[in-house]
Design brief:
With 438 residues, the chain is α/β, with parallel strands linked by helices. It has 14 helices and 19 strands. The strands form five sheets. Strands 2-1-3-4-5-6 form a six-stranded parallel β-sheet. The longest helix has 24 residues. It starts with a strand and ends with a strand. The protein binds 5'-deoxyadenosine and iron/sulfur cluster (SF4).
């Protein structure tokens, strides 16, 4: 048998890309590839790209530039571009970069084995279709092998919301939900491979409609999977937080008390210009209802500052909303023009205003996050230990609130959910002590 070929995948962007990279590696596993942690000895390099903010394509071109030496040293090296930049700029990449052998969009990567065969004959392969055949049906089973206790599982792709700033509806296409039986079968396989926690992924995951009762229906179906201990989902839209999903936060023990619910802005004027189809107040009402169902829920959000037309007052409204809600986790960005989206046509704000607003917003969010984290001290949480720490005898895991927790613990507890008392809080993590049950 010939030695396995080596595949290096560099993943940019969101968790869905992390999932896609795993599936691409598995698809190429059938072609005799094994993943490697460095590009230096690779036979194939795949850049799994993200197009959400500016300079995405430039980043890909400069990364490719850095790979020139590798290709010169090994003319048999194959280089591919995958993900959302591939989808948006595929033909341009093929034209501009002769060293690229293969370009594959996020909906076509089940065709990678055939594309790989084609590039081995010296051809160049481009596939950025939105094909009729279902990639998940083609890929079928997850590869066996060692896995950590947590996994991502894509259940929904694409978005029909068309926020005025966002490229996702163009790069990932219209909303599609995977059938529930396919998702449940994949969850079962993951559990058999040792997974205890599954994060359901979708660009608009709470618009999932592959099961009766939507995402809540799917969560309840997964709740019945023996051995699966924790369920999370991301990313959600406030308008799709339906009653059943809110209720599940209060009644489903496996559903973790953490919710990423982006609002983007606290100004109704800007929310309207963003085509978000909700107001600041309706967002706050939804949060109140979820917190009524699950009072200890840790909330996370996304914010954009410097959207075209954003005034000082609009920005102050965003700060007020943040004060009112209190986030335990957050992601914030300067607005960045995306060609082809409606907001890109509008007059843009000066960069220094965007930077100044982002700094103020991030200072407020960091202070809140630290406050929320510090409040955990003295509380008992449950930690799923995922890996060994740098210090001897230390394990690292995540609490139900997704805080990173360090604790001295027996390595036999790796992959298990363990009761831990939080004893201290530091910059980005909590220190805990395992509670020894009698
Ligand atoms: N500029 C800045 N941030 C953006 N996001 C999406 N598009 C843009 C853009 N053009 C942010 C939003 C979204 C997150 C995934 O990325 O906050 O929720
Ligand atoms: Fe983009 Fe999310 Fe808006 Fe969809 S809901 S367009 S993915 S920001």
């Amino acid at each position: 048998m010939s030695a396995p070929k080596k595949l290096f995948i560099k993943t940019y962007g969101c968790q869905m890309n992390v999932y896609d990279s795993e599936r691409m590696a598995e698809a190429l596993g059938g072609q005799g590839y094994e993943t490697t942690q460095t590009p230096d000895d690779a036979d194939m390099i795949l850049l799994n790209t993200c197009h959400i903010r500016e300079k995405a394509a430039e980043k890909v071109y400069s990364e490719l530039g850095r790979m020139k030496g590798l290709k010169a040293a090994n003319p048999d090296l194959k280089i591919g571009v995958a993900g959302c930049v591939a989808q948006a700029e595929g033909e341009e990449i093929i034209k501009r970069q002769p060293m690229v052998d293969l370009v594959v969009g996020p909906q076509s990567y089940h065709r990678l084995p055939a594309m790989e065969q084609a590039v081995q004959t010296g051809a160049r392969a481009l596939d950025t279709d939105f094909p009729e055949d279902d990639k998940f049906e083609t890929l079928k089973k997850r590869a066996k092998g060692k896995r950590g206790p947590t996994a991502f599982l894509t259940v929904q792709e694409g978005c029909d919301k068309f926020c005025a700033f966002c490229v996702v509806p163009y790069t990932r296409g219209a909303e599609v939900s995977r059938p529930a039986d396919q998702v449940i079968a994949e969850a079962r396989e993951l559990v058999e491979l040792g997974v205890k926690e599954i994060t359901l992924l979708g660009q608009n995951v709470n618009a999932y409609h592959g099961h009766d009762g939507g995402l809540a229906g799917l969560i309840w179906a997964l709740d019945k999977v023996d051995g699966l201990e924790r369920i999370r989902f991301t990313t959600s839209h406030p308008n799709d937080m339906d009653d059943a999903l809110i209720e599940a936060h209060g009644t489903c023990d496996k559903l973790m008390p953490y919710l990423h619910l982006p609002v983007q802005s606290g100004s109704d004027r800007i929310l309207k210009a963003m085509n978000r189809s909700h107001t600041a107040e309706s967002y706050v009402r939804v949060i109140e209802r979820i917190r009524a169902a699950r009072p200890d829920l840790l909330l996370s959000g996304d914010f954009i500052v410097g959207f075209p037309g954003e005034t000082d007052q609009d920005f102050e409204d965003t700060l007020s909303l943040i004060e009112a809600v209190e986030y335990g986790q957050a992601y914030s960005f300067k607005y960045s023009t995306r060609p082809g989206t409606p907001a890109a046509e509008k007059e843009q704000l000066p960069e220094d205003i965007k930077s100044e607003r982002l700094a103020r917003l991030q200072a407020l969010l960091s202070e809140q996050q630290r406050r929320v984290q510090d409040r955990m001290v003295g509380r008992d949480v449950k930690v799923l230990f995922e890996k060994v720490g740098r210090e001897k005898g230390q394990l690292i895991g995540k609490s139900e609130y997704l805080h990173a927790v360090f604790a001295e613990a027996d390595p036999a507890l790796l992959g298990q959910v363990v009761p831990v008392k939080i004893v201290a809080s530091s910059a980005n993590s909590l220190q805990g002590a395992v509670i020894n049950l009698p």
